[in-house]
Amino acid sequence: MGGPQRWLEDVLRDVSFRAAIDARVWHVEDHYRGALGKMRLLRECARQLHVHRPQRVYLSHDLNVAALVACGFGLLGAPCILVHSHNARFYANESHWKPRLYRSLVRRFSHKRIAFSHESAIAMFGEAPGQWIQLAAFIDFKKLWRESDRPPERKPRTDVYTFGCVGRLCHQKNQELAIRAMAAIRTNEFTSRLLLLGEGPLEPAYRALVQQLGIGNEVEFIGNVENVGA
Fold first, then answer.
1. CA–CA dist 230, 224 (Å, integer)
2. Looking at residue 111, what is its pLDDT?
3. Is 70 exposed, middle or buried (0-12, 13-18, 19+ CB in 10 A)?
4. CB-side neighbour CA atoms (13 Å) of 14
5. Model confidence at 118: pLDDT above 60
C-alpha cells in the first residue's frame, strides 16, 4: 500500500467516520489495460454501482486510474464523484497527450475536487483546476512511534546523522534528490547515512547512481517494511 492508501485506512478506522459513513472499499487492480480492459472496467463500475448504490464515489488514485474510473462511474450516472489528488506530478512529460486527456476526463466527470496542495490540484485537474478543496496531507510521527511494536534502541551518536526517506522508488517521489544530497554534504567533519524505505521501478537506477557517486557505504536500501515506525 502506498501513502494515500495508508491515509485512507486510518480514516476508515476512525470511530467518528465509521459512525457517520457506511463505506465500501474497491481496490482497483491493474488488469484493465487495452480496449478490452476498458470494457471490463466499465462493467465492473456498473457492478459496483448496482451492488452498493453509493451516494458518493471517492477516488484516491494516480491520474490515469482516477480518470478512467471517474469516466466509467460518470457515464453510468453515479450521483457524486470526488477525486482526491495526493501527487504534485504524475508523468515525467506532463505535456504528453495522455496526461492532457486524463485531466480532461477528470474535470468532466468529477463533482468535487480535492488536493493537498495547489501543485497537486494542477497535476490532477490541469492548469485551470477550477474550484477545489485543500486537504493537507501529513505524517503523525508521534503516532508512528506509539504504534511501533519494535521501537529501536535510541543510542545517540554524534558522529553519524541518519536521514530516512519513506516512499515508492519512482519518479514522483524523487529519491534521486536525497541520494545526490548525501554525496554533496559528505565531508571529513560530517558523517551521515541515508535509509531508503520502499521498492519501485527506479531501484536499479538508484543503486547504480549510489555506486557512481561512491556513497555505497552511506546509502542503505531497506525495501518495503510493515512497521515503518520501528
1. 12
2. 97
3. buried
4. 12
5. yes
